[in-house]
Amino acid sequence: MELIWNGFADAVGLLLRADPGVLRVAALSLAVSGVASLLAALVGVPLGVVLALKRFPGRALLSSVVNTGMGLPPVVVGLGVSILLWRSGPFGSLSLLYTPPAMVLAQFIVAAPLASGLTRSAIGLLNVELVEALRVDGASESRVGWETVRAAWPQVLVAVAAAFGRAISEVGASLMVGGNILNSTRIMTTSITLEVQKGEFARAIALGIILLALAFVVNAALVRGAGATLRDAAA
């Protein structure tokens, strides 16, 4: 217990002093996960809408791919991205391995299926008559998709929040493709792993507190946005 309390006390000290190393790691982590989550939302939400509303050849296979991706082990993603970006790999000439863009790519791959799968489920719960009414009125498929997203907006925000949570908490793939390089690719999750291995529990706890705080702030903002949407709809 003494180790835990001392760790928390030292962690509070690091946060109050605004330790540059801790803040640097936190800022990079937020940047990488934020970009990956944005890309996951831009790709995953429309894909989820298509899977919920359209019937086309290969839909069942694509749905199975999304379902599999929702539980895809991050280390498998890290392995795949590493092979693609390796010096002798297909995209080795881009020299992206062990850089933040490689980590963004890995986190995007693990987060996008969640955004897609949860959006598909949210759209699927809507009243079928809504979609039919839009089509009867002559709305284009893109308009139908947009209106259904608006109708299920609180649930879609939950999908985006889940994607962000998956991205910012990811460690295996980020470690493999980023290398956990000081002042370059070291983010909160990989740094926590390293600090624990070194026995530096104070810094690990400080980063853990920041990680939880960021996740809470983002989710609180999305919940607030969902609440505002519901109030506007009711009005």
Description of the molecule:
This protein has one domain: MetI-like (MetI-like fold, Orthogonal Bundle). Helix 2 (20-53) runs parallel beside helix 5. It has helices at 2-16, 20-53, 59-70, 74-85, 100-124, 128-136, 141-151, 153-168, 172-178, 188-198, 201-234. The model has no long low-confidence stretch (mean pLDDT 87). The chain has eleven helices and no strands. The chain is mainly α and 235 residues long. It is 79% helix and 0% strand.
CATH architecture call: Orthogonal Bundle
Domain module tally: 1
* Main pleated-sheet profile: none
What is the class in the CATH system? Mainly Alpha
Name the descriptors.
235 residues, mainly alpha, 11 helices
Write the layout of secondary structure elements.
Layout: H1 2-16, H2 20-53, H3 59-70, H4 74-85, H5 100-124, H6 128-136, H7 141-151, H8 153-168, H9 172-178, H10 188-198, H11 201-234
Helix pairs in contact: 1-11, 2-5, 2-8, 2-11, 3-5, 4-5, 4-9, 5-8, 5-9, 6-7, 8-11, 10-11
